[in-house]
Amino acid sequence: MTQGSESEQVRELQARLRQIGHFHRSPTAFYGSMTAEAVSGFQRKRGLAETGSVDGTTWRRLLAVTRTPTAGELRPATTNELDEPDPRCLKGRVLCISKESRTLAWMIDGTVVAAMDVRFGSENTPTREGTFSVGWKAEDWESTLYHTPMPYAMFFSGGQAVHYSPDFAARGYSGASHGCVNVRDKKKIASVFGQVKVGDKVVVHW
């Protein structure tokens, strides 16, 4: 395997590298520059020639220090890795939002039901941290301040809400919200919107 390759074996390679901390994104099955860098790092640590490509020796060494990836590892729910949940997220129904990992986990009694990537407000319009609850919901809403669409909005602190963001979907982390928690996966947030009830807990933490 080398740069430009695309196969399910590449997906497995990425998942195995992720298990041991060399690859930090969801497996894509495409062997690009980030995969090559991850392979080089693995080779360097194991005293192998740093080619950035996977030969028989590199593959056998990787198999020896990893396990067969699960279906969830091969196709995880979020691009960003979930971190350890905040203790406040372990009981009840909680939208557990981590600024460090830039993820949202919809949790029920400590179990992650769904997970997705999120982004936050800028320095001028920061997303508030703390423990809140969903005050109200609106499936089809437009910001009265900024006149931007906020589909599947779940308001938790004044005008701040978790909602789908077409801008996040298009621009990624090159942009920011006005304080809301933006989600870029419309299908996932629509599903969670249908499950979350007014009064459910929201935890925003580092």
Explain the layout of strands and helices.
Elements: H1 8-19, H2 33-45, H3 56-65, H4 71-74, E1 93-98, E2 103-108, E3 111-119, E4 130-133, E5 136-138, E6 153-157, E7 160-164, H5 166-171, E8 181-183, H6 186-195, E9 201-205
Parallel strand pairs: 1-9, 7-8
Antiparallel strand pairs: 1-2, 2-3, 3-8, 4-9, 5-6, 6-7
Write a brief structural summary.
This protein is of the alpha+beta class and 206 residues long.
The span between the termini is 37 Å
| CATH topology descriptor of the largest domain | L,D-transpeptidase catalytic domain-like
Largest sheet: number of strands, sense, barrel closure: 9 strands, mixed
Q: Are there runs of 5+ residues with pLDDT below 50, and where?
A: none
Strand content: 15-25%
Q: What proportion of the residues is helical, as a percent range?
A: 25-40%
> What's the CATH C level of the largest domain?
Mainly Beta
Neighbour order of strands in the largest sheet: 4-9-1-2-3-8-7-6-5
Output the helix-strand order.
HHHHEEEEEEEHEHE
| Residue-averaged pLDDT | 92
Q: Indicate the overall shape.
A: elongated
Structurally, the number of domains stands at 2
Quickly count the helices.
6
Radius of gyration, rounded? 19 Å
Class derived from helix and strand content: alpha+beta
The CATH superfamily of the largest domain is identified as L,D-transpeptidase catalytic domain-like
Gross CATH architecture of the largest domain: Beta Barrel
Q: How many individual β-strands? A: 9
